[in-house]
Each structure stands twice: as structure tokens, then as C-alpha cells.
Amino acid sequence: MDYAATTPVDPRVLEAMKPYFSKKYGNSMSLHSFGLEAKQTLEDSREMVASLMNAESKRLIFTGSASESDNFALKGVAFANREKGKHIIITSIEHHAVLEPANWLKKQGFEITHLPVDHYGMIDLNKLNEAIRKDTILVSMIFGNNEIGVIQDIEGIGRICKEKEVYFHSDATQSFGKVPIDVKKMNIDLLTVNAHKMYGPKGVGGLYIRDDIEIEPLIHGGGHEFGLRSSTVNVSGVVGFAKAVEIQKKEMNSDAKKQIKLRDELIKEVLKIEDSHLNGHPVKRLPNNANFWFAFIEGESLVMQLDMKGIAASTGSACSSESLEPSHVLLAIGLKHEEAHGSLRLTIGKYTTKDDVDYVVEVLPEVVERLRKISPFKKSW
After folding, report:
1. Tell me, what's the pLDDT at 322?
2. pLDDT at residue 316 above 80?
3. Cys bridge to 143: 11, 172, 203, 307, which one at CB 3.0-4.6 A?
4. Exposed/middle/buried for 351, CB within 10 Å: 0-12, 13-18, 19+?
5. How do residues 199-233 score in pLDDT, each as one tens digit?
6. Residue 357 scores a pLDDT above 90
7. What is the average pLDDT score of the chain?
8. How far apart are alpha carbons 313 and 5 in whole angstroms?
9. CA-to-CA distance for 63 and 70, rounded, in angstroms?
10. Is the dihedral of CA 44, 141, 130, 111 positive or negative?
11. ∠ CA 46-51-57, rounded to 5°
12. pTM of this prediction?
């Protein structure tokens, strides 16, 4: 129940990757036959991955992760366009891979606007339109939120950014391979994607960059990836990414239908628990995401108790961190600290079965009841 953290590698992906660890091990920058073979494989893979977002393959840069892609997008655009302006807009529910680069850019003299969201986690397009200024150079907004699963009106955001002539970046880490994405139709200028959230390997991501975007490389060196991302390319990982995309092109729709059915069943049954609440939009959400908060209990205790029952889940609570602060996403949608500390994220995948969901809805009420009996929160509330 934690597919949003990562997914198992599809056996078909693993088989496609195997030759590139030992038999086909060339460096894609080498001029001999081994290198040329690797380069052709790299370009074939680039074309496959780009096709799932309706992009030209030469505009897709392979990276080491989605976090690197987000950093590349924000820092690269900021420094290449600082003569035009130093204002960047993000949402208040971005992944830390966008939040932290934005915070870092603020220290470098850039101004960051955090656009608020409503209680569902949705931004107001009118507020976005009002927030864009003459010196705004970039809008970065997450496609489908990693915690509460809410999917923004990406096409509406893209339309506003195009009209205002502002670059639009979206982090689609949780969305790519789960819901349809068309960078042309949606007017997306930069798009972050990765492999390990869609049954591909860890250690490989990508950044789509529209062909007229001014961007500064994040990593300098030997000029790999069209001079935009130096480092010997992880060809085996890229092959795995491409195979995962090839599979999802065929299976995404059927996977989504199956997962929506299981997700909705999960939500319906969990909300039968007294003092339980759904976080995020009831409909405009990722097919595999269900996020709740339970009154009078602490999320990490809930996750540990579920783990002892063989259920892997996660929480928006961060009581193990030094800050002891709950999730910024849950606070942004209006939850109080004590409410956000009682959160639980359950995310399913293509290997999740009806029996898995049935087991969770059987075990969860018992665990919640047990924790409430010993909870110190109930008296204070």
C-alpha cells in the first residue's frame, strides 16, 4: 500500500535491461561500435519515453532522478533568465524537490511566491493569473500531488502561462504513466518524469525542455545529453525506463480503471471508521492514491502498527524528523497540526488485488481503535 514511494520493477523491464549490464555495456559517447550501439539504444529509448508525453525526443534530457530534474528546471531557468526577471511562482503543496530549490534560489536573490490551495488542494486559476507579474519568469506546479493525490487543472495553468509568456514547469513524477499527458495540448514547457514510480528502475529520470527554452545546465562536464547534462548516461536504466513506458502505453488505461475501482472501494470502507476524513479531492485525484486523517491518533504509530500486520503505508506526519512538523501539504489544505499528525497515505498499484484491499479494511479499524484507547490526544481534544 505504498506504491507512491516506489514500485517493483516489472519483470519485462528487468529482462530488457539485463544485456546492458554486461554484454552491451558501451559508453554512448564512444566512437567505436560498442559506443555507437549504446548511442542508438539511447536515442531509441528517448523516442519511446518522449512519445508518452507527445514530445519531440530531442527535447527529452535523461537525468539521475526526478529530484535532479526539478532542480535542473528551477535553477536552470532561473539563472538563464535572471536578466528578464527574478520572480518564480510555485504552489504551497509542491514536493520538496521543488520547494528546496525554490528556497535556495530565494537566497540567491530570486523572489518566490507560494500560491495557496483550497481545502481539496486545488489552486485557483484566477489567483494564478493575478500572481503573474512582468518580472515572472517561471511557474512550477505539481501535476498530481505525491501525498494527497490531487490533480491540478494543468491545461488551464498552461493556457494562462502561455498567454502571459511565462515558462511553465510541472513535476509529473507521480502522474507519468498513470494519467494521459500531452505537453503540446497542455502548453507545458518543462516536465519532470522518472522511471521508478512506473515499474521501471531507480536512478533514472527525465526532463522535457521545449525547444526554445533558455536554460542553464546544472551539471557541467563532457557535454552529454546535448550539452545540457554532462555525466556518462545510465544506458541500462534508460532502457528500463523506455520498456516501462512501452508497457504503460498499452496498459495504462486498463491499470487506471482497475486502480480507481480499488481506490474508491478503499476510500468508501475506510471512511466508515468513526472520525476518519479523506484528504484531497474526491474525484480529481491520481488513480492509485487514498489519503486520510484520523482523529485522536498519531500517523507514525499507525504506520508502524500496520507494518506489524504486513501492510506497508506512509504518513504525512514527520515526528521522527528534527522539526517535529507535520506535512506542509496537509497544513496547506487547512488541517490543524494535530489533525495532520493523524494522517495515513495508502497507494496501490497494478499488482494490488481485491484481497489486499479487503485485508486492509479488515485490519485498519482494529488498529485505529487500539491506538485511540491509549491515545493522549483524545483528552486534550
Report:
1. 53
2. no
3. 172
4. exposed
5. 999 999 999 999 999 999 999 999 898 889 989 89
6. yes
7. 94
8. 9
9. 10
10. negative
11. 40
12. 0.95
Rounded-to-integer distance, Cα 11 and Cα 215, Å:
37
Neighbours of 310 (CB within 10 A): 9
- 320, pLDDT greater than 70: no
Q: Is residue 171 helix, strand or coil?
A: strand
Domain ranges of the chain: 11-247, 252-380
Fold for domain 252-380?
Aspartate Aminotransferase, domain 1 (3.90.1150)
The CATH label, of 1.10.10.10, 3.30.450.180, 3.20.20.370, 3.40.640.10, for the domain at 11-247 is 3.40.640.10
Cβ burial, residue 356 (10 Å; 0-12/13-18/19+): middle
**CB distance 90 to 114 below 8 Å:** yes
User: How many Cβ atoms are within 10 Å of 11's Cβ, its own excluded?
Assistant: 9
Confidence of residue 37 (pLDDT cuts 50, 70, 90): confident
- Residues assigned a catalytic role: 319
Q: Give backbone dihedrals phi and psi of 194, rounded to 5 degrees, phi first.
A: -155, 170
The count of residues in the chain is 381
